[in-house]
Amino acid sequence: MSKYWATKVDILTGFENGDRLKTSRMTSFPPETIAIMKVALDSAVASLPDAVSSAHVQAIAETILRTAKGGERDPAILQRMAMMELQILTRC
């Protein structure tokens, strides 16, 4: 499990390997989708400069969750959507 899912995103509630992930809005994801979201999150965070704020990580994670909830399962697209939204948020 990514340290970001475990420590940076408090909107996720407890899950263990093999369990479904449940968000605060009663959405759940199977382990396969969690693995895809983890790849997208790790890739997105790795592409940021060294000084990564927890707010940026949370924004990325929330976008990935929302996009996956909409049915997207391609980690590259999840990452791209999160980075685009982060870029918009940081300009406001």
Radius of gyration: 12 Å
Strand order of the largest sheet: 1-2
Helix content: 55-70%
| H/I helix tally | 4
Mean pLDDT: 78
The helix/strand order is HEEHHH
Description:
- With 92 residues, the protein is mainly α.
- The chain has one domain.
- Helix content is 59%, strand content 4%.
- The protein is built from 4 helices and 2 strands, in the order αββααα.
- The protein has helices spanning 3-7, 31-46, 54-69, 75-91, and strands at residues 21-22, 28-29.
- Strands 1-2 form a two-stranded antiparallel ribbon.
- It is globular and about 30 Å long.
- Residues 1-16 have low confidence and may be disordered.
Question: What features would you highlight for this structure?
Answer:
mainly alpha, single chain, two-stranded antiparallel sheet, 92 residues
